Amino acid sequence: MGTESILVVLLIGGIAGWLAGQIVKGYGFGVMGNIVVGIVGAFVAGVIFPVIGLGFGGGLVGAIIHATLGAVIVLFLLRLVKRA
After folding, report:
1. What is the dihedral angle through the alpha carbons of 22, 37, 4, 55, rounded to the nearest 10 degrees?
2. What's phi and psi for 24, nearest 5 deg?
3. Is residue 7 part of a domain?
């Protein structure tokens, strides 16, 4: 994985984490936390969405939507775990 790829992953993860934090109010983790949540969310979405047959096409916008929905799932699960 080259330097450009790592930067793109961090950029998409940051955007997705920030968007997920805006969607799921009250669960912002700061810049680094949002990047981590976005990257984890992209991984979760990459595992779950193909199984259920959900795809968003290619490109940067599709990747951001994909990662954001995964990050929302991660934040929702974190909220459930914190309440328990």
Report:
1. -80
2. -100, 90
3. no
pLDDT tens digits along 5-42:
888 888 888 888 888 888 887 666 777 887 788 888 88
* Residue pair 79/24 in contact by the 8 Å Cβ criterion: yes
> What region, left, alpha or beta, does residue 58 occupy, with left being phi > 0 and alpha being psi -120 to 50 degrees?
beta
Secondary structure (DSSP) of 37-62: HHHHHHHHHHHHHHHHT----SHHHH
Contact of 70 with 42, CB cutoff 8 Å: yes
CA dist., res. 35 & res. 37, Å (int): 6
Asked if residue 69 belongs to a domain, the reply is: yes
pTM to 2 decimal places: 0.82
Q: Is residue 23 part of a domain?
A: yes
- Does 38 map to a domain? yes
